[in-house]
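Tutorial handout. Part one gives the primary structure; part two gives the three-dimensional structure as C-alpha cells.
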Amino acid sequence: MAAPAQPANSARQSILPVAIKDEATLYQSYMPFLKGGGLFVPTTKRYNLGDDLFLLINLLEDKERLPVTGTVVWITPQGAQGNRVAGIGVQFSESPEGEVARQRI
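Part two.
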C-alpha cells in the first residue's frame, strides 16, 4: 500500500534569492493585489501552489538583503501563452519581515 502523498508545503522551505536591479523591474514584479503584497519571481524551477518559500530579496543597489517568507499563489509555466515569462507569484507572509519588505518596496 502506497503512503499518502504529503502536501508540497509540508516539506522544508526552499530558499530563493531574488535580485531586482532597476525600478522598472520592481514595478513589474510587485503584486499589490495580493493581501499583504507579493512579488512575481521569474524562475524555471517547478513549484506548486501553496509551497512555502524563504525569499532573500536584493532591491536595486542595496547591499542588504531583505529576508521574507511567503507562499506560492501564482504560477506561470514555461511556454505560457503570449510568450509570458515563466515564474511564480509569492505572497508575503503576515510577519514583521513581510511588513519590512512591503515598506521597502
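Part three, for discussion. The first strand starts at residue 14 and ends at 20. The chain has one domain: 9-104.
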